[in-house]
Amino acid sequence: MYLESYIFWIKIGIEGIIYYLRPNKSNYIIMKKNIGPTDKVIRIVIAAIIMALYYFGYISDTLAMVLLIIGIILLLTSLINFCPLYKLIGTNTCKKK
């Protein structure tokens, strides 16, 4: 019961974000690069630190799960060079060409 409720709200949240990010409300999302090289390195280092803290047992329980999720998000966004939060707030750390 509770798990279904959480999954429902997560799905609604993700669908809302995807709808907001769509240009002209069409059926695709354009993910233009909005993470620069310095930002990318910082995200990877923070993700590595979080994962090392968990691996060596310095964090555990709920805090560990929350930080691991944040670490995974940071790692994924750095690998694809796109941050949805940056898109929402209009930030771009890439150098202009």
In a nutshell, what does this entry contain?
This protein is mostly helical and 97 residues long.
What does this structure look like?
With 97 residues, the chain is mainly α. The protein folds into two domains: 1-30; 32-97. 67% of the residues lie in helices and 0% in strands. The chain contains four helices and no strands. It has helices at 2-21, 37-55, 61-80, 84-89. Helix 2 packs antiparallel against helix 3. The radius of gyration is 16 Å and the shape is flat.
Give me the secondary-structure topology:
Elements: H1 2-21, H2 37-55, H3 61-80, H4 84-89
Helix pairs in contact: 2-3
The percent range for strand residues is under 5%
Low-confidence stretches: none
- Count structural domains: 2
Report the helical percentage.
55-70%
Can you tell me the overall shape? Answer: flat
Radius of gyration: 16 Å
Core attributes:
97 residues, mainly alpha, 2 domains, 4 helices, 67% helix
